[in-house]
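// run 5 | inverse folding | seed 20
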C-alpha cells in the first residue's frame, strides 16, 4: 500500500521550468501585483510581513517545482552557473548503491524527460525489492541445505538396513546333495546371493550420487558463509 502511494505521488507531474529565472520572474510578478493591489486599496507602506508571506508561499510550493528536472531548492542554490547533484552510478553490490557528488552546469544538461524519470524510479524500486528477497534467501538457504543433507543421510541409512547380506563362504560350505530339495535350496540361495549383489551395486550407485549431492551442498554452504562474512 505504501509503495503504491509513493508511486502515485511520483506520477503527479511537477511544474517544470527551463531556467530558475523563469520561476523568479513569476514570483516577482505575483509580488508586484499583490503589492499594487494593497497600495491601491489600503494605501501607505506595505507591511514587510506581506513580502515575507509571498516568499513563504513559494517556499511551500518549491517541492512541486523543478528546473530542467532538478528540484527548485537545489537549482536556487546554483553558484557560477553550476550546481552540486547527487549522481548514482554502477550497480547494487551487497545492498549498497554507489553514489557521488558531481558539479553540473544546468544550462549544459539535456532537457528533462519526466517519463524516463518515472521509469528510473520504478527500476530502482524493483532493485530494492530484489535485494530484500536476496537477503531473505541468504538467511533461509543454509537451513534448507541442512534439511536436504539430513534427508539424504536418512534415506541412505534406511537403504543399508534393508539389504540382506549373504555369507558366500557359508554357501560354499553347504553340503550339496543330489535330491531335488537340496537342488531347490541351492538355487534359492544362489538367487538370493545374486539379488544381494544387485542391491549392493544399486546401493553403491545411490551412495555415490548422495555423496556427490552432499559435496555440492557443502560447496554452496561454504560459498554462502564466505559471501556473508
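// decoded
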Amino acid at each position: 500500500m505504501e509503495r503504491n502511494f509513493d508511486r502515485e505521488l511520483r506520477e503527479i507531474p511537477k511544474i517544470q521550468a527551463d531556467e530558475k529565472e523563469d520561476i523568479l520572474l513569476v514570483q516577482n510578478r505575483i509580488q508586484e501585483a499583490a503589492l499594487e493591489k494593497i497600495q491601491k486599496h489600503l494605501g501607505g507602506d506595505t507591511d514587510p510581513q506581506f513580502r515575507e508571506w509571498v516568499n513563504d508561499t513559494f517556499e511551500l510550493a518549491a517541492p512541486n517545482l523543478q528546473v530542467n528536472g532538478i528540484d527548485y531548492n537545489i537549482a536556487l542554490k546554483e553558484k557560477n552557473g553550476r550546481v552540486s547533484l547527487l549522481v548514482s552510478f554502477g550497480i547494487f553490490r551487497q545492498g549498497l548503491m554507489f553514489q557521488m557528488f558531481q558539479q553540473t552546469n544546468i544550462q549544459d544538461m539535456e532537457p528533462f524527460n519526466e517519463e524516463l524519470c518515472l521509469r528510473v524510479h520504478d527500476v530502482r524500486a524493483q532493485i530494492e525489492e530484489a535485494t530484500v528477497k536476496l537477503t531473505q534467501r541468504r538467511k533461509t538457504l543454509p537451513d534448507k541445505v541442512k534439511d536436504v543433507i539430513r534427508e539424504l543421510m536418512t534415506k541412505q541409512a534406511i537403504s543399508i538396513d534393508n539389504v540382506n547380506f549373504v555369507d558366500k563362504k557359508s554357501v560354499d560350505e553347504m553340503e550339496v546333495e543330489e535330491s531335488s530339495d537340496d537342488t531347490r535350496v541351492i538355487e534359492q540361495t544362489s538367487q538370493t546371493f545374486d539379488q544381494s549383489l544387485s542391491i549392493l551395486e544399486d546401493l553403491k550407485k545411490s551412495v555415490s550420487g548422495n555423496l556427490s549431492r552432499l559435496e555440492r551442498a557443502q560447496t554452496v554452504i561454504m560459498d554462502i558463509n564466505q559471501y556473508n562474512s
